[in-house]
Amino acid sequence: MSGGVKNSKTPAGDEAASCCETFNLGTGLRVKNTGESHKANDHAHDQKAHNHNKCSDDHSHEGHNHDAHSHGGEGHSHDEHNHKGCNHDHAAQEHSHEGHDHGHEGDCCSAAPEQLSSLGGSQVVAGGLRTEIRIMQMDCPVEENLIKKKLGGMSSVKELDFNLMQRVLTVTHTPDSLEAIMAAIRSLGFEPEVSDNTSGKKNTQEKKKPWWPLALAGVAALAAEVMHWADMPDWLEAGLALIAVLSCGLTTYQKGWISIRNGNLNINALMSIAVTGALVLGQWPEAAMVMVLFTIAELIEAKSLDRARNAIGSLMNLTPETAMVQQADGTWQEVDASSVQPGSIVRVKPGERIGLDGEIVKGQTTINQAPITGESMPVDKIAGDTVFAGTINQSGSFEYKVTAAANNTTLARIIHAVEQAQGAKAATQRFVDRFSQIYTPVVMGIAVAVAVLPPLFGAGTWQEWIYKALVMLVIACPCALVISTPVTIVSGLTAAARKGILIKGGVYLEQGRKLKALALDKTGTITHGKPVQTDVMVFNGWSEREVRTTAASLASYSDHPVSLAIVNASADLKKQDVDSFEAIVGRGVHGVITGKDFYLGNLRLTEEHFNCPSEIKATVQRLESQGKTVILLNDGKQVLGLFAVADTVKNSSREAIEQLHELGVKTIMLTGDNPHTAKAIASQVGIDEARGNQLPEDKHRAVEEHSRIGITGMVGDGINDAPALAAADIGFAMGAMGTDTAIETADVALMDDDLRKIPAFVKLSRQTYSLLVQNISLALGIKAVFLVLTLMGMGTMWMAVFADVGASLLVVANGLRLLRK
Ligand SMILES: Nc1ncnc2c1ncn2[C@@H]1O[C@H](COP(=O)(O)OP(=O)(O)OP(=O)(O)O)[C@@H](O)[C@H]1O
Ligand SMILES: [Cu+]
């Protein structure tokens, strides 16, 4: 089975084809399933309904009924195309549980390797305009509050959405208010940037700061310390300290002042107060040291944050920058990959990386698709097969026809999805944000009390207690706490993407560890989805040749795996013409051949027309309990023939189920196939529970049922099981590599058909969670220790700086560990 969509076989297919061609041109994406295109489009009805609700806004979700038996010939290919061709912007929103509307970024995803995602400009939305603003100086997370406070008070601002990792602020605002918003941000000392859609690239890099002031400050601070020990005169110490503080601390003072003026205390404000206080108290060398240490630490922190940020971008670096493209005159020329148009022919040599998505037109090879699927077993590819940007060509030379521009490749979509996933804040992150808003004022309150109360009651000198209070001000900064979560989540999302698991939001990464039950469908998910015909029987005087010809003729109009098996087994026979072909969901197919009605499908379909003789039923049952799927050919009055087909179980499925059970996840198989076959297959792979005869809404109900008890996942191919996937807490789509819709509509998209990616996802989710907990305890623990030390009189200010920025460094480094997994 070559897979893919066969619209040519569908009556009225022409119309369908032309329609989807337009769609395809529109998105620049021609989707063709790779190898295991299980369950193609014969689940026509539910699929169709689903397509509609994905592709157009005017169809309600309840549309996934199957009262649509009658849409007859204009069938499936059309639907499938629609589905695949439909613009992803709609689809993306449908699943955005968090209500974040990210669709507007459209195709902006980085065309060339760059460190930060590009900005989408302004977009018209319900509440007015939505604009993405990049603020490079938004480095300490506390600055988020500063901006929130300032903009939140403006009546023209409807909604704010911060993405600190990308340093992008998304504002929903009334038209004409953008200038005022930019001015407000500037008044806070930031330099906001808006993409002006016309000029492509922007200068997104931070301006390089000269290094010498910091070096000078360091030397001066050290000298001041030496003067102090050497008992030199105070004015020398003081002078050196002032030089140190002024040469490296001016920006800190500046930022601090802006923050204080706006009634907010960020780390810069806290440091400024602390250092000034130390100077006032005559602690010259200490004040200088603290400012220098703080500046250095901030630098390191910024660097490590960049690393987390760039981890995603590094996925993009997988694609080569140039491609060898055939010119109009037949010659080959190396051109910029981002300028290659879909339809161009590109040549790839052994060992090279593939630059764009495409379809092989000449040659054959093996390709390592690990960069996308995480599976390092090379895959054989011949003409007609799909290749993906970022994957590595191993053995042969070949030529392929480009199917998507550089900014629209599967890899680009993955990266885009990961970038957006960070925007949807996970529960822990929201908790931490809320907590930090209480934490800082509380610690500051304690600091004030410490400064004032003890000396008032004569428990020491003012000097001594004010110093302690200043130290506490430094400890009051929640940086480490606030930064720990996004860094960890981003690392987790990126680590997953590298394994071929595309997680569409921090939420799912957090929920995965709690997965209680997983529903799986059978065909193509647990099995290979490529059944082979094993038995044929004839009844009521028909010859085997007649039965096979009639059945194969009907089946050839369908892409259902069972039908494909029948067609393949009778490839030698000449097919007859079929009129009024229709697919009947969960049952089979119907058509008219030389004026007579024929039905080909499961026992259920037969019994809906007449009572099947009990000997035949017994035979069906016997075959089914061997794990075979049995379908019957009837003419509406009597059974004419019987076919049994057998599908094989993927080895990886068995392993995956075992791993899931070890992780404490219950497994349930939901299949449209009959209960006997379901049971037989289920016992082969060790699945806990098997339910057969499941129509799409039965699957939906079953998932909902489990979901009430605990977090429930559902795996399917993202097309046929749409209602159930949508009902699941976490919907997994399999074999997403070639299908953009699967990437965009699932909660978690598995790039290939390997079920073991689900236990891997659960494990990663657990690791991420334990790192989150570690980080939060680390951040709070370190601060608590220094708080106590300070109160006991053992904490010094430079220790507090370590406590603050050191803790930040620690949690960032800890979070980045996930990337090495
Ligand atoms: N086009 C078809 N040709 C032949 N048989 C069909 C066809 N469509 C449905 N059937 C019969 O109906 C049964 C149920 O089909 P359905 O598509 O709901 O499930 P499935 O694809 O077999 O299994 P799963 O739900 O695990 O994907 C099939 O097992 C088959 O016996
Ligand atoms: Cu901080």
From TrEMBL:
Q: Which residues cross the membrane?
A: 211-229, 235-253, 438-457, 469-496, 771-792, 798-819
Pfam family membership, one:
E1-E2_ATPase
Subcellular location per UniProt equals: Cell membrane; Endomembrane system
Matches recorded under Gene3D superfamilies? 3.30.70.100, Calcium-transporting ATPase, cytoplasmic domain N (3.40.1110.10), Calcium-transporting ATPase, cytoplasmic transduction domain A (2.70.150.10), HAD superfamily/HAD-like (3.40.50.1000)
Keyword Chloroplast: yes or no?
Answer: no
Instruction: Write out the GO cellular component annotations.
Output: endomembrane system; plasma membrane
Keyword terms of this UniProt record? ATP-binding, Cell membrane, Copper, Copper transport, Ion transport, Membrane, Metal-binding, Nucleotide-binding, Translocase, Transmembrane, Transmembrane helix, Transport
Its main localization is membrane
Region of interest (Disordered), residue spans: 31-109
InterPro entries the UniProt entry points to:
ATPase_P-typ_cyto_dom_N, ATPase_P-typ_P_site, ATPase_P-typ_TM_dom_sf, ATPase_P-typ_transduc_dom_A_sf, ATPase_P-type_domA, Cation_Transport_ATPase_IB, HAD-like_sf, HAD_sf
Matching SUPFAM superfamilies = Calcium ATPase, transduction domain A (SSF81653), Calcium ATPase, transmembrane domain M (SSF81665), HAD-like (SSF56784), HMA, heavy metal-associated domain (SSF55008)
Which GO molecular function annotations are given, in alphabetical order? ATP binding; ATP hydrolysis activity; cadmium ion transmembrane transporter activity; metal ion binding; P-type monovalent copper transporter activity; P-type zinc transporter activity
Q: Do the record's keywords include Nucleotide-binding?
A: yes
For this protein, what reaction is catalysed?
Answer: Zn(2+)(in) + ATP + H2O = Zn(2+)(out) + ADP + phosphate + H(+); Cu(+)(in) + ATP + H2O = Cu(+)(out) + ADP + phosphate + H(+)
| Compositional bias annotation for Basic and acidic residues | 33-107
Instruction: Look up and give the membrane topology term.
Output: Multi-pass membrane protein
Task: Please report the stretch or stretches of sequence annotated as the HMA domain.
Answer: 129-193
What NCBIfam families does the annotation carry? ATPase-IB_hvy, ATPase_P-type
Family, per the entry?
Belongs to the cation transport ATPase (P-type) (TC 3.A.3) family. Type IB subfamily.
This protein is called: Heavy metal translocating P-type ATPase
User: What broad taxonomic lineage does this protein's source fall under?
Assistant: Bacteria, Pseudomonadati, Pseudomonadota, Gammaproteobacteria, Alteromonadales
